[in-house]
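In the laboratory, one determines a bound structure by crystallizing the protein with its ligand and collecting diffraction data. In a computational setting the workflow is compressed into a single prediction: the sequence and the ligand go in, and a structural description comes out. We illustrate the idea with zinc ion.
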Amino acid sequence: MLPANLPDAVRDALLAPLVDHHCHGVRRDEVSRAQFELLITEGAAPAPPGTTHFDTPAGVAIRRWCAPVLDLEPHASPAVYLARRLELGAGEVNRRLLRAAGVVAFLVDTGLEEPDLLTAPEMGRHGGAAADEIVRIEQIEQDVAEVAPLAVDYMDSLAEELAARAARAVAFKSIIAYRHGLDFDPSRPSRGSVIAAANRRLADPKARLTDPVLLRHLLWAAVDVARDRGLPMQFHTGFGDPDVELHRADPAMLTVFVRALQPLNVPVVLLHCYPFQRQAAYLANVYPHVYVDLGLTLTHTAAGGARVLEEMLELVPFHKQMFSSDCYGVAETCHLGALYFRRGLGRVLAARIDEGEWSVSDAARVAHMIGSGNARRVYRL
Ligand SMILES: [Zn+2]
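The predicted complex, in structure-token form:
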């Protein structure tokens, strides 16, 4: 799985247990072929007639690397692979693939609230790992909006609920990239504008929150709680499902907001980032409280992932990058995220050592930092 020319110390560091600092639950039930195909793509539509989502970098990677975990030959056909999946059952498949990822702690974004997904403690049990919760702030807002009778109650309840949920979590996460775009006004909105917007919101509280004033209010209310409790704030950036407008998910758009958070000592974690990994690496380079990862990028770019990692590592300080699988739906996405992280980083480190740029001990140290050490420090695990 790793390059053949790696020194033992670097190999050991890469194979050491990972902290998966951002992931989601995988499904607890058996899935049909059509469901499985939708869960291995960020797209929301079936492949065109006569084609398959297995003909993607991630699809081929599943046949190559996940098939042996289910006792099949590498490169098993999609039909054989999915038949074996059904034969073993979802519980066994989840246990095998999550454990194959070699993760020691899952930090689970629980904001999707789908009953078919494993909860954070269940992810831990299936994967033989510890598990902690990351709270999605837009989900908290939805819960509050649905029960608040008046705009003033809405504001008070939001602050209380954020504080209550933060007490059981290791970080907040925002999907403002999806709800608005990262090109939001970075200033804190006035109380008057928030009350006016909240009155409009409470007329239709079940709708998805897209009001820019309330999204900013939510963000700043979460910043206040994060500062008090020393919690990092994760932000979706870069590619994702078709709800995102990619050109408005460039993390560089967060620059002024990031600057405003610097004196508050709230760590900002830029998730995924692709294809803006260079912009993210720049922000992590110049702002002391900014961290980055590649998340599901490595699962979806698969064999090409090493090049993406290489670009991130052009500029990112090594104490600023973290591993995540961003797995969701099927446990294959966890195994592949971990596998392509280790393979890709192994390739980059082997090249640095071969070129005489890095010592073996530096390469091993950086592998430990990015694989688990940085996340332990940032999330106080
Ligand atoms: Zn995610």
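Strands lie at 18-23, 103-109, 130-136, 171-174, 233-237, 268-272, 290-292. Keep in mind that any predicted model is a hypothesis to be tested, not a measurement.
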